[in-house]
């Protein structure tokens, strides 16, 4: 008997479109592993902050990669990132680390450094993986590619609610400006720009809450992959 076939679902889209919320819930519903690839870029952003390395200087960031002890481990149905043996949490979600992560993600050596880690974690299990270049670069053979989007205003509203809940003092205008800057960086970088794969299915969730987004995604999963057992 051959090994059971694993399935890969890629979710790409801009910042604040709700990719991670959808990916986590979809993975849970399908019994797949959720892999958050942004956390790897954020970990490198954090390492740059800690080392006092300006993120827009590729030489400094590349020098940092040499000694970087970065690991992605699968635990509790999802992925956890460890830097120097310590599990990372909310320290990779601050506004500063978020800006750094977008900057370092433009550096080709950073993307190359993270590519195999991402593919390796997707090899053994059925996964839902979210990011910016999952359908185009990391998992080009994924059985289903979703491109999730929402209006900039909706995305800024969600992001500011998230940050306020964590105690960061932000205004919606500031968050919208940061988000547009990040969209600009992520979409226009030379390597692996955040663009939909030609075979991606688009889902705009501007008017939808998390549950409605999940149901819309499950309808696409059923249509494209047939009836998979779900727990919702
Ligand atoms: O998804 P996120 O907001 O946690 O991602 C943080 C940054 O990392 C984002 O600005 C873009 C970058 N990123 C990327 O370039 N490619 C990915 N696959 C995931 C994230």
Structure description:
This protein is of the alpha/beta class and 232 residues long. Helix content is 49%, strand content 16%. The protein has a single domain (8-222), classed as 3-Layer(aba) Sandwich (Rossmann fold). The protein has helices at residues 19-30, 38-51, 58-66, 95-104, 108-123, 134-138, 152-165, 172-188, 210-225, and strands spanning 8-12, 33-36, 70-75, 78-83, 86-87, 127-131, 144-149, 201-204. The strands form two sheets. Strands 2-6-1-7-8 form a five-stranded parallel sheet, with helices on both faces. The protein has a three-stranded antiparallel sheet with strand order 3-4-5. A hairpin with a 2-residue loop joins strand 4 (78-83) and strand 5 (86-87). Helix 1 (19-30) packs across helix 9 (210-225), helix 2 (38-51) crosses helix 4 (95-104) and helix 7 (152-165) packs across helix 8 (172-188). 39% of the residues are buried. Bound molecules: 2'-deoxycytidine-5'-monophosphate. 2'-deoxycytidine-5'-monophosphate (DC) is lined by residues 15, 37-38, 41-42, 101-102, 105, 131-134, 182, 186.
In short:
This protein has helices at residues 19-30, 38-51, 58-66, 95-104, 108-123, 134-138, 152-165, 172-188, 210-225, and strands spanning 8-12, 33-36, 70-75, 78-83, 86-87, 127-131, 144-149, 201-204. With 232 residues, it is an alpha/beta fold.
Count of alpha/pi helices:
9
CATH class: Alpha Beta
Please name the CATH topology.
Rossmann fold
* Unreliable sequence segments: none
* Spatial strand order of the main sheet: 2-6-1-7-8
The CATH homologous superfamily is called P-loop containing nucleotide triphosphate hydrolases
Radius of gyration: 17 Å
The tally of strands reads 8
What percentage of amino acids are in beta strands?
Answer: 15-25%
Query: What structural category characterises the helix and strand content?
Result: alpha/beta
> What about the largest sheet?
5 strands, parallel
Note the overall shape: globular
How many domains is the backbone divided into? Answer: 1
């Amino acid at each position: 008997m051959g090994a059971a076939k694993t399935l890969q679902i890629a979710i790409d889209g801009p910042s604040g479109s709700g990719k991670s919320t959808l990916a986590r819930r979809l993975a849970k519903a399908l019994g797949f592993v959720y892999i958050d690839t942004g956390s790897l870029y954020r970990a490198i952003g954090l390492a740059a902050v800690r080392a006092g390395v300006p993120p827009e200087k590729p030489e400094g960031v590349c020098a940092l990669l040499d000694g970087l002890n970065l690991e992605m481990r699968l635990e509790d149905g999802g992925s956890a990132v460890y830097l120097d043996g310590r599990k990372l949490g909310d320290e990779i979600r601050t506004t500063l680390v978020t800006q750094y992560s977008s900057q370092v993600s433009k550096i080709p050596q950073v993307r190359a450094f993270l590519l195999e880690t991402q593919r390796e974690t997707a090899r053994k299990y059925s996964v839902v993986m979210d990011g910016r270049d999952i359908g185009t670069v990391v998992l080009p053979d994924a059985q289903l590619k979703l491109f999730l989007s929402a209006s900039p205003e909706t995305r800024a509203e969600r992001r500011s609610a998230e940050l306020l809940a964590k105690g960061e003092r932000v205004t919606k205008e500031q968050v919208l400006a940061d988000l547009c800057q990040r969209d600009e960086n992520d979409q226009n970088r030379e390597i692996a720009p955040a663009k939909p794969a030609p075979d991606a299915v688009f889902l705009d969730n501007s008017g939808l809450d998390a549950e409605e987004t999940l149901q819309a995604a499950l309808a696409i999963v059923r249509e494209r992959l047939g009836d998979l057992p779900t727990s919702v």
